[in-house]
């Protein structure tokens, strides 16, 4: 019974931000609890996996709201979101492609809910390793790495990765990196 409470508490903690957005997460968690209490571990796990996936999707939608509008003279494509369950290392992401007046493009991606992001964050803590990956720069108050091609990678709060890449010049990539709502992302 203690295991069931810990399992339920963990699932509820994951679902807390999404609980107000709808009942689909809470329904999956409730079904997991009922299956667990009935001794059906397979169904309990499947329901918790579903709840986790739904939370990941809601996180990806939240990331999409933080992507910037197109800069003056640029156009933007539709925001794309994705959530991959924990069996694939887990990740939620939102991305958007922007096209400049010269035809070059920039893609901005925010990724979270991933152990891979936390591992990448460790590289940022060591300036020697980070410097080997590219030039260390600041984007606002945020430390970032700019590659030789001008792509920008930032880790926010050791849990979110913001990537800005594309065929546009380094200045355009930097402008889009600066336009991401890092303040709101850091509060998630």
Write structural notes for this entry.
- This protein is α+β, with helices and mostly antiparallel strands.
- It is built from seven helices and eight strands; from the N terminus they run αααββββααββββαα.
- The chain has helices at residues 2-15, 24-37, 41-64, 115-125, 127-133, 170-179, 182-186, and strands spanning 75-76, 80-84, 91-99, 105-112, 135-139, 142-146, 152-156, 160-165.
- Strands 1, 2, 3, 4, 5, 6, 7 and 8 form an eight-stranded antiparallel beta sheet that branches.
- A hairpin with a 5-residue loop joins β3 and β4.
- α2 (24-37) runs antiparallel to α3.
- Mean pLDDT is 80; it is low at 1-21.
Concise synopsis of the structure shown:
By secondary structure, the protein is an alpha+beta fold. Helix content is 45%, strand content 24%. Strands 1, 2, 3, 4, 5, 6, 7 and 8 form an 8-stranded antiparallel β-sheet that branches.
């Amino acid at each position: 019974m203690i295991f069931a409470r810990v399992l339920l508490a963990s699932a509820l903690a994951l679902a807390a931000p999404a609980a107000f957005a709808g009942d689909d997460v809470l329904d999956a968690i409730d079904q997991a609890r009922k299956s667990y209490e009935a001794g059906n571990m397979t169904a309990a796990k499947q329901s918790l996996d579903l709840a986790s996936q739904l939370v990941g999707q809601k996180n990806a939608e939240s990331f999409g709201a933080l992507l910037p509008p197109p800069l003056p003279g640029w156009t933007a494509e539709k925001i794309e979101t994705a959530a991959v369950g924990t069996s694939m290392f887990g990740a939620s992401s939102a991305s958007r492609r922007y096209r400049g007046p010269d035809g070059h493009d920039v893609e901005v991606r925010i990724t979270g809910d991933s152990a891979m992001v936390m591992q990448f964050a460790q590289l940022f803590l060591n300036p020697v390793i980070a410097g080997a990956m590219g030039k260390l720069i600041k984007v606002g108050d945020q430390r970032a790495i700019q590659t030789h091609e001008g792509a920008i990678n930032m880790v926010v709060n050791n849990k979110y990765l913001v990537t800005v890449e594309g065929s546009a010049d380094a200045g355009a990539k930097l402008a889009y990196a600066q336009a991401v709502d890092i303040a709101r992302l850091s509060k998630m």
